[in-house]
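Long-time lurker, first post. I've been practising inverse folding by hand and with some scripts of my own, and I keep getting stuck on stretches where the structure tokens seem ambiguous. Below is the full token string for one chain I'm working on. Before anyone asks, I'm not after the true native sequence, just a reasonable design that respects the backbone. If someone could post their per-position residues I'd love to compare against what I wrote down in my notebook.
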């Protein structure tokens, strides 16, 4: 299997982790307030005490699994861009590795927060709430609450692909829109809406990139 094909499947895998996260967020975790600015920390701690496994599953998919397949995609896309835009390829590799590292770190901290809150929640709920809030703030700072690193990487890949005509026009357009949405998460008044644009746009972009790479993965001449 070629690196480009591995990257294509990794891109589709990234889309799958995002889709899983959105569905889980809107169903199982809906009462906790995740995805908005008003997370009910006490409800999160109570949920962690009762069903910590579900929170750990969610964090592990949206952060840890996503980071691992994202790293594969970063390397594959850099290799894909290199023949036509070698300088941009190096830039995207550096930014992409930074993003995947931040996502992995956010997932590890998120899971530690759940584990510690679950252990402390039964005996001292107030202390558990304070502890979870602190660790959750660190998680958000690494990437769960802003999308700057991801926005810059997706935007850079899309600009490079447009210059070198190495991905389809749909993927390039979706990447630019998604990148702008991610950068807009810096603005507090529209942060939640911009985050939704980034998340939904990223799903479409990952799918478009995966399909484009599969279509362009031509077998080597004998």
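-- Answer (accepted) --
I ran through it position by position. Result:
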């Amino acid at each position: 299997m070629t690196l480009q094909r591995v990257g294509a499947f990794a891109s589709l895998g990234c889309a799958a982790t995002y889709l899983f996260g959105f569905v889980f967020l809107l169903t199982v975790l809906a009462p906790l307030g995740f995805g908005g600015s008003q997370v009910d920390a006490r409800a999160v701690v109570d949920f962690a005490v009762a069903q910590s496994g579900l929170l750990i599953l969610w964090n592990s998919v949206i952060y840890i699994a996503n980071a691992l397949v994202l790293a594969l995609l970063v390397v594959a896309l850099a290799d894909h861009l290199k023949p036509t835009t070698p300088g941009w390829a190096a830039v995207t590799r550096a930014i992409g590795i930074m993003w995947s590292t931040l996502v992995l770190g956010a997932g590890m901290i998120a899971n530690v927060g759940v584990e510690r809150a679950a252990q402390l929640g039964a005996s001292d709920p107030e202390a558990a709430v304070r502890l979870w809030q602190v660790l959750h703030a660190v998680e958000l700072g690494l990437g769960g609450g802003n999308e700057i690193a991801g926005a810059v990487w997706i935007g850079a890949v899309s600009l490079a692909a447009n210059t070198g005509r190495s991905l389809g026009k749909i993927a390039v357009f979706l990447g630019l829109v998604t990148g702008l949405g991610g950068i807009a998460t810096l603005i507090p008044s529209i942060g939640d809406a911009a985050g939704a644009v980034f998340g939904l746009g990223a799903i479409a972009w990952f799918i478009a990139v995966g399909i484009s790479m599969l279509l362009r993965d031509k077998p080597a001449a004998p």
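A couple of notes from the structure itself: The chain has one domain: 3-216. The chain has a mean pLDDT of 92. Happy to go over any region you disagree with.
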